[in-house]
Amino acid sequence: MLEGPEEELTTVRVQDPRVQNEGSWNSYVDYKIFLHTNSKAFTAKTSCVRRRYREFVWLRRQLQKNAGLVPVPELPGKSAFFVGSTDEFIEKRRQGLQQFLEKVVQNVVLLSDSRLHLFLQSQLSVPEIEACVQGRGTQTVTDAILHYAMSNCGWAQEEESRPALLPGGALRGSCARLGGPQGPGCLEPLPHWSDFGMDESRLDSPAEPAEPLGGPQEGQ
Fold first, then answer.
1. CA 56 to chain CA mean position, Å
2. Structural domain boundaries of the chain?
3. Which helix (H) or strand (E) holds 202?
4. Residue range 166-198, pLDDT digits in tens
5. How many CB atoms within 10 Å of residue 5?
6. 67: helix, coil or strand?
7. Where is this region: Disordered (predicted)?
8. Cα(41)–Cα(75) distance, rounded to whole angstroms?
9. C-alpha to C-alpha distances, 39 to 7, 11, 35, 46, 72, nearest whole angstrom
10. What radius of gyration do the chain's Cα atoms show?
11. CATH architecture under which domain 10-157 falls
């Protein structure tokens, strides 16, 4: 008896919120996005990146612009008022971001947008994603995703916490080759997993200053 085609499944999780630049005026929270899929729509079957809320806002705006009449799911955290602690707000936002991505990756129209794939499966900054999609970058969309995946910056166990530093400063886990040195796409080892490939100076323009931490502001 012939078996039918394998059902395509995509798991996406938003996890591990972390404060970057803690104690600084331009501190912010970013989130780990883990994706595992057998869908042919994705270039890499497993990926792991870190993104901040401001990048989610940009992604939704671009998806809506390119989707025409197809509705795009809403993002959390629109309200300027929140009763509760900062930790509660961050957790509520994390849950909302995961629900947003879960809905997005199930929509075939939204899945056709190259920006979504670069957002989920590379650590390119927003300006770099735009340049890549518009053909102004040094790589195609597929090449950028494969380069990130092959560098093993995109490899991670779903339940992994922060990667450990091995003797000699090599990273174990998210940004390390299995049994080998760091991948060529990785930055120098840091005490914790920061934004690989992120260029905040390019993302934050004078007209849009970096948001302070400590309140439920939309740009966080």
1. 8
2. 10-157
3. helix 200-203
4. 333 333 333 332 223 333 333 322 223 333 233
5. 5
6. helix
7. 188-220
8. 23
9. 9, 10, 11, 11, 21
10. 18
11. 2-Layer Sandwich (3.30)
219, burial (CB in 10 Å: exposed 0-12, middle 13-18, buried 19+): middle
- Contacts (Cβ under 8 Å, ≥6 apart) of 134: none
Strand partners, 51: 31
Q: The tokens of 116 are what?
A: 């979504």
Q: What global pTM score does this model have?
A: 0.69
Q: Please provide the DSSP assignment of 85-148 as one string.
A: -HHHHHHHHHHHHHHHHHHHTT-HHHHT-HHHHHHHH----HHHHHHHHTT-SSS-HHHHHHHH
**Minimal CA–CA distance to 110: which of 173, 61, 148?**
61
Only one residue has tokens 């922060």, namely 162
